[in-house]
Amino acid sequence: MGLVLILAEKPSQARAYADAFQKTAKKDGYIVVTDHRYFQDHAIITWGFGHLVELVKPGDYKKEWGKWRLDNLPILPDHFKFDVPRDKKKQFNIVKNLLNQADEIIVATDADREGENIARSIIRHAGAEHKPTKRLWINSLEVAEIQKGFKNLKPGHQYLSIYEEAQSRQIADWLVGMNASPLYSLLLQKKGISAAFSIGRVQTPTLYMIYTRQQEINNFKPEPFFELYADVNVQNGVFKARYKERFTKKEDVQALLVKHGLQEQENGHITKLTKELKQTKSPKLHSLSTLQSKANKRWKYSPSSVLQTVQRLYEKKLLTYPRTDANYITNSEFAYLKGHLSAYQSVANVSFEVAYPAARKRYVDSSKVQEHYAIIPTKTVPSQKTLAGLNAKEKNIYFEVLLNTIAMFAPDYQYEETNVEADVKGIVFQASGKIEKVKGWKSLFLHEHEDKEKEQEPKLPAMREGEPALVKPAIKEDVTKPPRPYTEGQLINMMKTCGRAIEDEDAQQILKDIEGIGTEATRASIIETLKNREYIAIKKNKVEVTKKGEILCQSVEGNLLSKPEMTAQWEKFLRLIGEGKKTKEVFLKNINKFICHLIEQTPSQLASISIEHNIEEAQNEKMIGACPSCKKGYIVDKGKFYGCSGYQNGCRFTLPKLFLGKKISKTNLKKLLSAQKTNLIKGFKSKSGKTFNAYLQLKDGKIEMDFGNKN
């Protein structure tokens, strides 16, 4: 067989693979494996750090492309170059040397399109694409799953088309970003804003959808409405009931009361009483997005932090692969979950009688599992010591997945729903209530608070049809409410379901098939990008568009860049590339046409819109405080540091964003500029790695530490 090289995506993944083999030896940048169950001779595991190979910057093609100038656009290379970032060159050279020695390569990066792109880009850049390859395709880093995967390796050539698909998407995104970002930035700077704007196929329509919701809120005009309620008094108690229609004028309600001759108190009777036993099944298994939404709603965790947490639990072999869009598992996973059920119950400290020992389509459906199955616990049942070693966020996420998974074995939640109608002089008032009968799977989630509306669900007194009732009608006035701002968790769902709001049926269907814009792996990072670019701000878990974000949205309004349809058009073609029916070259040729059209049309489009007022507000929003050096300019956010707005007039005063490993917040910076001293800042790191707390003070234009009362 010769030398077999196993290419992992990152060091933690490589270490997990090594744990599955009999004898290993750690070297610099790789691990030597000896295990004759799998390899005739020894094998070597090596790794990247995610993308070891990246697309080069425009200036590496042409020197003039390195500068943002309108006359340098469009940036459309004839062919695309890849290179290794400086901080990753050492590891790449190790991998390249090993690839060139190898007789066979096992691609063992993450089992998805991006994992394939990462591996093939490294192999191609190292000049080893002619070598035979096999593919490891697994969803868990448990020893048993890894061993099973290495015994069932797939032919590597079967996955080349999804590499072409992923790289086509990567290059197209680069082309849009490298052309649209300077185009809009330079044109908007001509209008007076001193900021750079980042444009992206996914991030820009995501921002625009948030902006649209904010506009709906800002432009919302409350309108009064009136409802007719009644207190209905029967033999065993009193309950509140409502007339089904809503009125826009109080006079209309009063006219209804006059028409039927209703006074302050009237005799009526119960005309209808129905009771129905209902039941609900446990929630579907978690995909990454449902887990992100649940964790954000319950603990206010950001989608990005949820992904990072699930990734750590995956690497600790407690949860399965995190970047999955599936809510289903196969019969294989169901079998081991069922086999470990009592152990899982013990870990979660819950007990229930198994109501569903057999697999059900709601949870187990191989036809709906593509690259990855749902996020579930692995076969590794954690000990109390292991659980004690998890931080609070890891425990919360682990137990959420664990309980959500074992709930599919638990009884249904059952309740009795009662609907009642009371007639008084021909006006029918309605009420409903429910009585819990069997808590079922909900007993696993007793620690969660029910929605306020459900908590306030009325309990109706016992009554019978035909029973007389004393009815006291009352008019209630209220106003319509604006839509609520999105939470971070809702942004994930918004990105997944954005196709519903599109009129074009083809685009709508494509976005439904691909589950919206972005992927399970990228949606969280898109939201982080919007925050880092200062397009949105999160306040009490509510998402707000900043003035800078508003300016960009007004600039791309009506443009394909603001619409999810652009992704739909791309994905339709990209899927055909993945199926081997279309080529990357034709796809990129169409992207080039779009970019040329964008560059031609945008100047006149931006010239026709009036955004000067927002630009002025955005400029004021950026001003943090007066410059202590020149006394004329203002300190503004320059991206990687804070600096004076009077730079062009000669003021070179700057302040760092990061000081001794700690980010200086704008709140503390304002205090530093106005009072010459910040609040106490915790978590500075010394050169020796020790953490400490201190105040920062400004003396003669320089930052100094102030330890306050040393006692």
Structure, described:
There is one protein chain. By secondary structure, the protein is α+β, with helices and mostly antiparallel strands. The chain folds into five domains: 4-152, 3-Layer(aba) Sandwich (Rossmann fold); 168-219 and 498-612, Topoisomerase I, domain 2; 224-281 and 413-478, Topoisomerase I, domain 3 (Distorted Sandwich); 288-409, Orthogonal Bundle (Topoisomerase I, domain 4), CATH 1.10.290.10; 623-706, no CATH class. Helix content is 37%, strand content 22%. It contains 22 helices and 26 strands. A seven-stranded mixed beta sheet has the order 2-3-4-1-7-8-9. A hairpin with a 7-residue loop joins strand 18 (623-626) and strand 19 (634-637). The chain is globular. The termini are far apart. The mean pLDDT is 90. Residues 159-599 form the Topo IA-type catalytic domain.
Quick synopsis:
It catalyses: ATP-independent breakage of single-stranded DNA, followed by passage and rejoining. The chain is α+β, with helices and mostly antiparallel strands.
Task: Name some characteristics of this structure.
711 residues; alpha+beta; Rossmann fold; Topoisomerase I, domain 3; 5 domains; 6-stranded antiparallel barrel; 22% strand; globular; Topo_IA_core_domain; isomerase; DNA-binding; magnesium
Per DSSP, the total helix count is 22
User: Can you tell me the CATH superfamily of the largest domain?
Assistant: Topoisomerase I, domain 2
CATH topology of the largest domain, which one? Topoisomerase I, domain 2
The number of strands is 26
